[in-house]
Predict the 3D structure of the following.
Amino acid sequence: MSKTRIAFIGAGNMAASLIGGLRAQGLDAAQIRASDPGAETRTRLQAEHGIEVFEDNAQAVADADVVVLAVKPQVMKAVCQALAPALGKHQLVVSIAAGITCASLQAWLGEVPVVRCMPNTPSLLRKGASGLYATAEVSAEQRDQAQTLLSAVGTVLWVEQEQQIDAVTAVSGSGPAYFFLMIEAMTAAGEKLGLSREAASQLTLQTALGAAHMAAASEHDAAELRRRVTSPGGTTAAAIDAFQNNGFQALVDKALEAAAQRSAELAEQLGK
């Protein structure tokens, strides 16, 4: 990426996080451009990162090697159709918009190489998880460019079939909300057991953080880690039994299937 020129179309939170991550990795400000219709957004981005900003999308992508589409899915078609005349077939397009397929992007932009990404909200803290899919037109060098780009905000995983992006959406794209729900439920349960809300919240948050760190650092999978902290007949076993006897795994399966199905439905709707 030492000489790669990157243009961001749309300069919202996710784009700003990617730009910040790239700058933190040492990418020169002169290699990054961004466009956005909001004057305040452009001013803030330029002040924070020292990059060149534009109101006009076509100006931003001129001479860019990588073009990052970071606009809302609902306006993607109009943005792409207006941008198409300014793009060359050598320019890599990276879309971080949920629900927009590569086929739709190429229908609106032309036969340009496309990498479709599904990042998640922890990317805003550079603790994200992103699934990536590349079309056949994407070269090995361009795959490296896309990986370096998304690695600036967290972990990157490639999938070989585009439909697997729906599964990525179900697991990691929507996943933070599932953990927030668990934190919410455990905090409420702690209160019912007699703790103050502040104490229940602090204990739950630190336990979630600690468990995630343990799982990430361990050579053992989550099932083994669970077994190691579950003494037969103990308190943890009582809780785990309650989870499992009330259909916890089946509920998780059903929830993720619903998310994946909705992801596919949205892709069909937004791609028209």
Summary: The mean pLDDT is 95. The chain is about 55% helix and 15% strand.
